[in-house]
Amino acid sequence: MNIIFFMAALIIYLLGTAASLAYLVSLRRLFSKLGKFTLAAGFAVHSAALVVRYLEAGYTPITNLHESLSFFAWSIVGVYLVINVKYQVEVLAAFVSPVAAVLIILASLFPKEILPLAPVLESYWLPIHVTLAFFGNAMFTLAFAAGVMYLIQERQIKSKKIGAFYHRLPALKILDDLNYRCLTFGFPLLTLGIISGSVWAESAWGAYWSWDPKETWSLITWFLYAALLHGRLTVGWRGRRAAIFAIVGFAVLVFTFLGVNLLLTGLHAYN
Domain 1-117 is of which CATH architecture? Predict the structure, then answer.
């Protein structure tokens, strides 16, 4: 049953993404409203898919690539829906929803069978650690989207040629503030995710840190975002530099989440 809800969510997300991109191209408010409504509906159906899978599996369904990619997509859409209540950036969905759509499409390509839980994962730290990390990643995804929009808008302004996107994108100050707010929420979540993972590792493997590839790249990701936050708070990094850092940080984050699992081996190979 969870697969039925999952596939329904995938279809609804694709419709929401199409509507959001249509608004970016046409600026017709109908597409904007349709995109928001469809993404909210997709999030509700996706939530049902996760709940049903939890009931069917008997454990938090974030233990393999299908479940992790699905949960990441769900986290991104959920964070977008909350953040957009405050910022009301109409075109934000056009930059965020494609990321969620790609993730859920990738999730559909991996095995969906519910397997017995590995002994090391039988811990109450599983939902705590992974939920904190994924919601932090979702915040960074929105910071990435704000960074991309910032660079596009800045280029148009500096070229003194008003392009098609100029009237579609918010002011640079709004985008920079959105980038910063997502960073200030995402970094503590990532930090708590790493700390909880270390505590879990000590109870499971007898050591807080083992320099596993996933742990190493998580630390690299943490340092990148720590540098960005430090730069914003103490040096006054703003605008273009912060936008580029958010984009680079997101690229490293994606490698940490997906690339490490597919290309490297280690204690986290089952994720």
Answer: Up-down Bundle (1.20)
Predicted TM-score (pTM) of the model is: 0.91
Stretches in the chain below the pLDDT threshold 70: 160-166, 204-209, 264-271
- Distance, first Cα to last Cα, the chain: 23
CB contact at 8 A, 245 and 224: yes
Among candidate residues 214, 223, 224, 226, the one with its CA nearest the CA of residue 258: 214
**Amino acid identity, residue 201?**
A
Domain ranges within the chain, ordered by starting residue: 1-117, 131-271
Residues 53 and 59 sit within 8 Å (Cβ to Cβ) = no
- Report d(CA 181, CA 190) in Å as an integer: 14
Reduced 3-state DSSP string for 92-145: HHHHHHHHHHHHHHHHHHCCCCCCCCCHHHCCCHHHHHHHHHHHHHHHHHHHHH
